[in-house]
Amino acid sequence: xxxxxxxxxxxxxxxxxxxxxxxxxxxxxxxxxxxxxxxxxxxxxxxxxxxxxxxxxxxxxxxxxxxxxxxxxxxxxxxxxxxxxxxxxxxxxxxxxxxxxxxxxxxxxxxxxxxxxxxxxxxxxxxxxxxxxxxxxxxxxxxxxxxxxxxxxxxxxxxxxxxxxxxxxxxxxxxxxxxxxxxxxxxxxxxxxxxxxxxxxxxxxxxxx
Length: 209
Description:
Blueprint: H1 2-11, H2 21-66, E1 91-97, H3 107-110, H4 116-125, E2 128-129, E3 143-144, E4 146-150, H5 160-170, E5 176-181, E6 186-191, H6 196-207
Parallel strand pairs: 1-4
Antiparallel strand pairs: 1-5, 2-3, 5-6
Helix pairs in contact: 4-6
């Protein structure tokens, strides 16, 4: 403070140095008083902040003791995949292909058409129906409801039961297979499997062994 008074006296005209110091001193004392008040308030705020932080930690400790089973929220778990569809009791199977590609088709895939194991499964799981849509009186013209059809077939000449499934399959990339169960639900709609083993595995997944 003495240094401040000394500097002020140096800046004032010499004739005024004797009359001003009291006023300046009073102003400086007011400023110092206000500074002291500010410092006191700052210290009080710091103390209260420390107290609040301490109480917050104490409160967290009390909550943890009273409710030890409460855990922080966990991220959403991975969605549970839907259960597999129930086994079909009967199926209608369409195997469609391009007649011109039979000579270039892989032998393992071509064998699907002549496999005894595949035919045996189809005979056991595909219900009997009349191929033309009209049954004879003796019912001897009935056969299991699976077809190996070239995509070039006249779709309009097919029985109504096969016309819809064939039209929906004809636009696919050949060779294509579509399987529909007894509830008219599509259970398989994809290219032919690569071989007899893969096909039988897919069929058994749909309708069992």
